Amino acid sequence: MPDIRYVCVSDLHLGADNSLLTHLRSNPGSADPVTVDPGTPSAVLVEFANCLGELVRHNKGSVKPTLVLNGDALELALAQDNIALMAFEHFLELIFPINGEALVAPKIIFNPGNHDHHLWETARETQYVDFLQGKRSKKPGTDLPLPWHATNMFDPDLVDSCLLNAAISRHPHMAAQGVHVGTVYPNLCLLNPDESKCVIFSHGHYVESIYMLMTTLGNFVFPNRVVPTEVWDIETENFAWIDFFWSAMGRSGEVGKDIEHVYDMLLVPKARTRLILQLARAAGQRWVRWAPKLGEWLGLLSVPFVSSLVGRAGGLEKTQVGQPLTPDAAQGLRAYVEGPLAKQIQAERQQEMQAKTTFIFGHTHKPFSTGMDFDHFPSGMKVYNSGGWVVDTKDTDPTHGGAIILVDEQMNAVSVRMYNEASRPTAYHVRLEAVDEPANPLHNRLAGLIDSNQDPWLSFSRVVADHVNTYHKNFRRESTSSAPSHRTA
């Protein structure tokens, strides 16, 4: 009977006020009716851990599965670092209970996304420091290479995540168990023993063109330049942009909180239109200080230009409702898999991928499971999206939800669809799915363990149903108000 060997989750966004895994405090009658309460785990997080524990305890062997955090585990763009870290600690306290059995192995694999990309920046600096302190770099006359912007996807040397491991060290029982986070970026490939099957993990932000904005600008300004196609070159050009807007705003003090509000407004069309008009008028007033009203009128002439710029953020895949993957995102996924991903495999293996491939990504917050064909890979790639745990639309959208992806030693994968947003509480239920069922032995084994009408699955669904509408209301309030409210307590 196959055991679970890897547990993959993504887009937890711990610390964000729109994450179901972040506890919110109600403040009736105050200017901020809802604030983040970093001192308490959310009810959804507690039930999430209960469900994970139920899955893992049925493993037959003694080896615990490895946890893969496949990007955006922490919210570093829209939450302050300390808030995100405290939420992360609550997550770990439930995974490694002080008076109970650990749910996963102590060695955690972390593949940063765009909202916690800064943790990759600190990790790669750690990687370079380790190199500089090694024997090779100390040889007289040795030229130093540039710092690396990616790790190997096959058998990588995981890079120490100093910040996350420092948070872990605050808990003696975790330190005693050897709990440790190692970082890989942006792709990780695991093979089964005979290398006939593989699973590739990638957060997925590069399926959207906005995360390659610097490359796009470079192509526009220098049309005859050599356009990067390797993943490390793409990251080299775009890491500062990703870090600047998508991963470092939480540490920008009061300005960062204001930009957090701007970000919320970008996700709602009416609020985005109002924001664009405000930006255009404000810019015009600065252009013509001696005649502010004239400046406002002139500023409005720039609205089409400003709209084209901010519209990129407003058109993020996670805000597009009605379908799990829009045509633009599907095209971006194909371009990434057949381009940078295939090239990295070729560079490391000296050949195209021969193993039957499963590709797991998140980022879009809309889980799905499907089969797809890609150039440079065997036919019938199994593609799983792990969704997300945040509410980032005004109204309920059934394509938004969260999933846990499980993988066994033979690289069979299944998706435990934990929830999709629904208009009725009774429509929330947990379900198991696999692209290759019923031929998938891991699916067949787990099918008898997940009964949506029994606890802990039923309890989880009830708690999620109770909380999603609250988070929708909070999102509407934040995205439509005209002034930022600083939401962390």
Q: N-to-C SSE series? A: EEEHEHEHEHHEEEHHHHHHHEEEEEEHH
Strand content: 15-25%
Low-confidence stretches: 254-261, 482-489
Annotation, overall tally of beta strands: 15
Tally of individual helices: 14
Total number of domains: 2
The shape, in one word, is globular
Q: How is the biggest beta sheet arranged?
A: 8 strands, mixed
Task: Name the average pLDDT.
Answer: 85
Distance between the termini: 48 Å
Which class do the helix and strand fractions yield? alpha/beta
Biggest sheet: strand arrangement:
6-7-5-4-1-13-14-15
Pick out its properties:
single chain, 489 residues, alpha/beta, 2 domains, eight-stranded mixed sheet, disordered C terminus, 14 helices, five-stranded mixed sheet
Write the layout of secondary structure elements.
Elements: E1 4-9, E2 22-26, E3 34-41, H1 43-56, E4 66-69, H2 81-95, E5 107-110, H3 118-132, E6 159-160, H4 162-168, H5 172-177, E7 180-183, E8 187-191, E9 197-202, H6 213-221, H7 231-246, H8 253-266, H9 269-287, H10 292-300, H11 303-314, H12 327-349, E10 356-361, E11 368-372, E12 381-385, E13 401-408, E14 413-420, E15 431-433, H13 441-446, H14 457-480
Parallel strand pairs: 1-4, 4-5, 5-7, 9-10, 10-12
Antiparallel strand pairs: 1-13, 2-3, 6-7, 8-9, 11-12, 13-14, 14-15
